[in-house]
Write a structure and sequence with these properties.
This protein is mostly beta strands. It is built from no helices and ten strands. Strands 1-2-3-10-5-8 form a six-stranded mixed β-sheet, with no helix packed on it. A hairpin with a 2-residue loop joins β6 and β7. It is globular.
Length: 118
């Protein structure tokens, strides 16, 4: 069940030039989607997300290619009408301008890498 619950942002960046445990850099909140922007520049963005079970993002398009790396849990990611189960340790690429949606099969964390096209 995708919801229209606003995404809850947390502190925007991680400290540079030191290692981070990626999945531990964002926490779950009951009934919510939490986001944390890690990096933003002219080439694109890197954002961490934590989705509680049953939460999701409804179908939309993005102007840039995007790579999703699932860090924890399991998601159903639908791209151009084709659902895929993606689990911890797996990645999936969502092409620019192609409709996609995300749904938490169980609570999950992901890193979203958006690459700006030319």
């Amino acid at each position: 069940m995708s919801t229209n619950i606003p995404i809850q942002p947390v502190a925007n960046t991680l400290a540079v030039s030191c290692p981070h445990e990626v999945a531990a850099s964002i926490g779950y909140q009951a009934g919510a989607v939490v986001s944390r922007e890690v990096l933003r520049n002219k080439a694109g963005t890197v954002t961490l997300f934590a989705f509680d079970t049953g939460q999701g993002l409804s179908e939309h398009t993005a102007p840039f290619d995007a790579l999703v790396h699932v860090l924890d849990g399991e998601a159903e990611i639908t791209i151009d009408g084709n659902p895929q189960r993606v689990t911890a340790g797996q990645i999936i690429i969502m092409p620019a301008q192609i409709p996609h949606s995300l749904q938490a099969v169980q609570r999950f964390k992901m890193m979203l890498v958006m690459i700006r096209g030319e």
